[in-house]
TrEMBL record, chain A:
Its main location: membrane. This is Nitrate reductase-like protein NarX. GO terms for molecular function: electron transfer activity; heme binding; metal ion binding; nitrate reductase activity. Heme b 1 binds at H53, H63, H205. It is a multi-pass membrane protein. Pfam families: Nitrate_red_gam.
TrEMBL record, chain B:
It comes from the Bacteria. Residues 7-36, 177-208, 210-239 form the 4Fe-4S ferredoxin-type domain. GO terms for biological process: anaerobic respiration; nitrate metabolic process. Pfam families: Fer4_11, Nitr_red_bet_C. This is Nitrate reductase subunit beta. It is found in: Cell envelope. The gene is narH. The lineage of its organism: Bacteria, Bacillati, Actinomycetota, Actinomycetes, Propionibacteriales. It comes from Tessaracoccus rhinocerotis.
Length: 252, 521
């Protein structure tokens, strides 16, 4: 069971993520959007959304560093475990708190603004729930995950990170992960779940971050003939039929 | 010189009676879907007035269009590429639904279902967004025909600017003396700032006819185009999460039909034709230093389709002969560059708009008539144009970045035509002096009269058909023989022709589209 959860499941999730994204990119270009609600409400969004996204970027970089940089390397570089931990605890904790607060604001806005709430699908609600669980568990892991229930000291860089790197090089070593605290286990488990549902939610917008905007020419010419040959969205996706009410829960 | 063709439009504002038929037929054709109830690809605004969305012309607030930097380059007013990417998580200046209006319907059912009571049943307005009862506070033409103008006139960005310049003198009298309607569609600019603002690169200008379109499959809903467009003619479909805009009825244009708004225009005030322009000089023209020179700069890059050099360059760039012929007959070229009576809307945004307007002489004529003067006499009209400073300056803010000399010139031409043609109509010889006074000849006066007043259908709309044959042939060839570089093979599964392919969903759809597309048979 341990091996299945920490040795097999992550690869299954990776497979779902990649194949799901590929499938959706190929067949649902039309649905590939954030479905912004800024038209309905802008005041709270303008504060909360940038905080959320920048905090998310910070947290993402923190995860990369924590998971990929071996403890041996920082030891060799002369960075003591205490220093490292302080940085991770306060830096990561701060970013995580900002993330949680901003997500709270966004969910509150979504619930309390009638227009926004009416445009929220069941898919969105489920996604927000999973996202919130992952973030809260992540905060728990950061603040309380350094001691086992029996009071034993725990350092995720010797458990979770080792496991993660073993997964990256396809030599699964589940023992370190199994030795981490429940907070980390739960955070990783729900994190995996979030990745698995990502291709099927609005979160896909992250995978088309428009970095090429920095390099493309301002004016785009395109020939009519080539545009006609493109057929990307699968049948069924597209504008709602005439007469569909805005408040229909039909397809989105 | 890189000659490109641009489908463009001219509207003769003197003829617009503000009936909104264009808006309604456009809406019925294109934006009667969920998520676009508040969207009007075509709307008609009363001037003076706030426009739609309200005060959209106030670019200090809405940050649309381009600005010229000190070094003489063009920059988006809302910021450079880095700034745009950094602020992508919440668009800093996007009009909210309340800046347009909250769309609504009425509870008609209540009229029928209501039991017998002492009171009349009413149909209450219900929001189309939330379904709740709502108080209607605005619409796309809430200040139609100067409705409530005494309260809102100070918010009209053009008035605000004029007032600043002329120290508050202008208010009282003129709201009685002039009013006109401005129908607006997407300008299909030569230098579109919506396109430049799009992070995904989903907005493109068609090489063949210059129509600006949004690829619905590539749009990711970042909403920067809404900010980028100074005319606020790109809209966010809040249901699909994608941007949508006027597409110049391209399915109709491709088969040689005018747009829905033009076809149904009661006043027959719209003209459609193609214009050749030099694509290599667009940026240079859009970056001239003085905004008042932008009008001339744009005229300058419109090319004479009878010039043999231009014709040769057009052919070299793959423009077909029937298109060249259409460009020569184009009413747009005639009105913009030959008669020089049409003007661009807000050239100071530096987007090089391609829907132009003939400014209305009617405010002047109406005033003369009301005061008991002969509103057909050239002398009276010329005098009135000079004396009526405010309407002229207002028009100048709309059409020439504030250069009232240009507007005066156009109005004088229109006035001269009126006076000249009165003589002809009354069986007298035309007075060449009137024509000369505005730098024209009697012959040109009559030509202009024919185009503006008689306005025959086939002279108003000179629309060459799109050349679909070639693309179609290429595709058909793929069925029997495979060519390297055949467009049909750009797709991994070969689209609708070529090698035997497994029956995927995609090829099924391609086949179905092929079968249903009548132009392919």
């Amino acid at each position: 069971m341990t091996f299945f959860i920490w040795g097999v499941l992550p690869y299954v999730v990776l497979l779902i993520l990649i194949s799901g994204l590929t499938w959706r990119y190929k067949y649902d270009q039309f649905g590939w959007t954030t479905r912004s609600s800024q038209l309905y409400e802008s005041r709270i969004l303008k504060i909360a959304s940038p905080i959320f996204h920048f905090a998310l970027l910070a947290v993402f970089i923190g995860h990369l560093v924590g998971l990929l940089v071996p403890k041996a390397f920082t030891d060799w570089a002369g960075l003591s475990q205490e220093m490292y931990h302080l940085g991770a605890f306060y830096g990561g904790g701060l970013a995580g708190l900002a993330l949680a607060v901003a997500l709270g604001m966004l969910i509150w806005r979504r619930r309390r603004t009638g227009r926004v709430f009416k445009a929220t699908t069941a898919n969105d609600k489920f996604m927000y729930l999973v996202l919130a669980i992952v973030i809260i568990l992540g905060l728990l892991a950061t603040f309380t995950g350094e001691t086992h229930l029996n009071g034993e000291h725990h350092n995720y860089r010797e458990t979770v990170s080792v496991w993660f790197r073993s997964m990256v090089i396809f030599q699964p070593d589940v023992a370190p992960m199994a030795a981490s605290t429940w907070q980390f286990k739960a955070h990783v488990f729900f994190g995996l779940f979030l990745f698995a549902i990502t291709p099927f939610t609005r979160l896909v917008h992250a995978f088309t971050a428009p970095l090429h905007y920095l390099f493309r020419p301002y004016i785009v010419y395109r020939s009519r003939d080539t545009s006609k040959a493109r057929q990307v969205s699968a049948g069924g996706r597209g504008w709602d039929p005439v007469g569909t009410s805005d408040r229909d829960k039909g397809r989105r | 010189m890189r000659v490109m063709a641009q489908v463009s439009m001219v509207m003769n504002l003197d003829k617009c009676i503000g009936c909104h038929t264009c808006s309604v037929t456009c809406k019925q054709a294109w934006t009667n879907r969920a998520g676009t109830e508040y969207v009007w690809f075509n709307n008609v605004e009363t001037r003076p007035g706030l426009g739609y969305p309200r005060t959209y012309e106030d670019q200090d607030k809405w940050q649309g269009g381009w600005v010229r930097t000190k070094s003489g380059r063009l920059k988006l007013k809302s910021g450079g590429r880095f700034k745009k990417l950094l602020s992508i998580f919440a668009s800093p200046v996007q009009p909210g639904l309340d800046d347009y209006y909250e769309p609504w319907t009425y509870d008609y059912e209540n009229l029928i279902q209501s039991p017998l009571t002492d009171d009349f049943p009413v149909a209450r307005p219900k929001s189309l967004i939330t379904g709740e009862n709502m108080a209607i506070k605005a619409s796309a033409n809430w200040d139609d025909a100067l409705g409530g103008i005494h309260e809102t006139i100070h918010q009209d960005p053009v008035i605000a600017k004029l007032r600043k310049e002329s120290n508050d003198k202008i208010m009282a009298e003129y709201e009685k003396t002039f009013m006109f309607f401005v129908p607006r569609i997407c300008e299909h600019c030569l230098n579109p700032s919506c396109m430049a603002a799009c992070p995904s690169g989903a907005i493109y200008k068609r090489e063949e006819d210059g129509i600006v379109l949004i690829d619905q499959d590539r749009c990711r809903g970042w909403r920067q185009c809404v900010t980028g467009c100074p005319y606020k003619k790109v809209y966010f479909n809040h249901r699909t999460g994608k941007a949508e805009k006027c597409h110049f009825c391209y399915p109709r244009i491709e088969v040689g039909l005018p747009t829905v708004c033009s076809e149904t225009c009661v006043g027959r005030l719209r003209y459609i034709g193609i214009v050749f322009y030099d694509a290599d000089r667009v940026t240079e023209a859009a970056a001239v230093e003085d905004p008042k020179d932008l009008y001339e700069a744009q005229l300058d890059i419109m090319l004479d389709p009878r010039d043999p050099e231009v014709i040769a360059a057009a052919r070299a760039n793959g423009i077909a002969d029937d298109w060249i012929e259409a460009a020569q007959k184009s009413p747009i070229y005639a009105l913009c560059k030959y008669f020089k009576v049409a003007l661009p809307l807000h050239p100071e945004y530096r987007t090089m708009p391609m829907v132009w307007y003939i400014p209305p002489l009617s405010p002047v004529v109406d005033l003369l008539q009301e005061q008991g003067h002969d509103a057909e006499a050239a002398g009276n009209l010329f005098g009135a144009i000079d004396a009526l400073r405010i309407p002229v300056e207002y028009l100048a803010e709309l059409f020439t970045a504030g250069d009232s000399a240009v507007v005066t010139g156009v109005l004088q031409k229109l006035a001269a035509m009126r006076a000249y043609m009165r003589d002809i109509t009354l069986g007298r010889p035309g007075d060449e002096e009137i024509a000369e006074a505005v730098g024209m000849t009697g012959g040109a006066m009559e030509q202009m009269y024919r185009l503006l007043a008689i306005a025959k259908y086939n002279e108003r709309y000179v629309i060459p058909k799109a050349h679909v044959e070639q693309a179609h042939n290429l595709e058909e060839m793929g069925c029997s023989v495979n060519f390297d570089g055949d467009p049909a093979f750009d797709e991994p599964y070969g689209g609708s022709s070529g090698k035997p392919v497994p029956v995927t969903i995609q090829s099924f759809n391609a086949m179905k589209a092929h079968r249903d597309d009548e132009s392919m048979t």
